């Protein structure tokens, strides 16, 4: 019987949560704040009923006074619990991409136009279990950051999870909460292969000719116009100082070969294993300061390097299907 009730409750929760559409910000008002008595509040109400019945039976004036005093305190507590949320504005900052299996950091900015708020819990809906809340204090007349951890289980572009804000301040007799589905996506990269396989060999460029080695026997052989992805070490600063033209040195090997991270060169039977190996190769090429390209079925990124190219390559692996 308990399993049936749990399943019915979960279906109701799914229907209720599905009514919340994504939005850029969330303003807490009387229309989207819900409040119910807690278990302690229900027992407190039963105690008041017992006090009231005893006072009526024995005609106890002090019993009446105590009963109505406690009932008034409970009503005041209900309004304070509701007002702890009312008037707040929530805004979610775009989370940084993470690898599958890591915890993403979702930062909320809570704008409070009034007095300080105490005992506010924030959490994200993940799976079918209860929402784990992290409690914070919101400063008066200002903005307060709140950080929520979200477990990124699978690669891909995922919508941000449903968020819950809750409070039982001040006496725990009532529970007030609100639900918000923030607009935006979380990019989850494939989990890099561990240990990573060796990088594939650089492929020769069709029609590429290596320039003659310089007489000084230096590391670089020629000059060419600066391209996006060139490192500061490749820039010919003396030439730039004389002519004002931004040029880069070009070595023998870089002129003749390019490093391509190809889907077909992973030699893995499963799709996720291939993506995991390609992600490891992207990180390895970046650590070694190599310019690399990425080839996937129906997608090709030309050889570059840098943080932007790394994000583009890993995002392509995350969204590939």
UniProtKB/TrEMBL annotation:
Keyword vocabulary terms for this entry: Membrane, Transmembrane, Transmembrane helix
Keyword Membrane: yes
Transmembrane segments: 33-56
Full protein name: DUF58 domain-containing protein
């Amino acid at each position: 019987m308990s399993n049936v009730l749990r399943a019915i409750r979960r279906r109701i929760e799914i229907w209720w949560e599905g009514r919340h559409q994504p939005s850029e910000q969330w303003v807490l008002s009387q229309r989207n704040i819900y409040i119910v008595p807690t278990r302690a509040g229900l027992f407190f109400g039963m105690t008041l009923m017992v006090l009231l019945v005893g006072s009526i039976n024995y005609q106890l004036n002090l019993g009446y006074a105590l009963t109505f005093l406690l009932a008034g305190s409970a009503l005041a507590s209900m309004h304070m619990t509701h007002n702890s949320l009312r008037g707040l504005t929530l805004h979610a900052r775009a989370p940084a991409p993470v690898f599958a299996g890591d915890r993403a950091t979702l930062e909320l900015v809570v704008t409070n136009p009034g007095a300080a708020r105490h005992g506010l819990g924030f959490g994200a809906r993940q799976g079918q279990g209860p929402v784990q809340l992290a409690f914070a204090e919101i400063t008066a007349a200002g903005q307060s950051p709140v950080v929520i951890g979200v477990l990124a289980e699978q690669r891909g572009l995922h919508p941000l999870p449903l968020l819950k804000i809750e409070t039982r301040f001040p006496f725990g007799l009532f529970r007030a909460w609100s639900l918000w589905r923030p607009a935006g996506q979380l990019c989850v990269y494939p989990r890099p292969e561990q240990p990573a396989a060796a990088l594939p060999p650089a492929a020769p460029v069709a029609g590429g000719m290596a320039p003659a080695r310089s007489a000084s026997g230096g590391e670089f052989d020629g000059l060419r116009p600066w391209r996006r992805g060139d490192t500061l070490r490749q820039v010919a600063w003396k030439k730039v100082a004389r002519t004002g033209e931004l040029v880069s040195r070009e070595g023998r090997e870089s002129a003749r070969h390019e490093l391509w991270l190809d889907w077909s060169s992973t030699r893995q039977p499963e799709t996720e294993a291939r993506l995991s190996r390609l992600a490891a190769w992207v990180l390895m090429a970046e650590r070694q300061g190599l310019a690399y390209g990425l080839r996937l079925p129906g997608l090709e990124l030309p050889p570059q390097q840098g943080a932007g190219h790394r994000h583009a390559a890993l995002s392509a692996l995350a969204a590939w299907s």
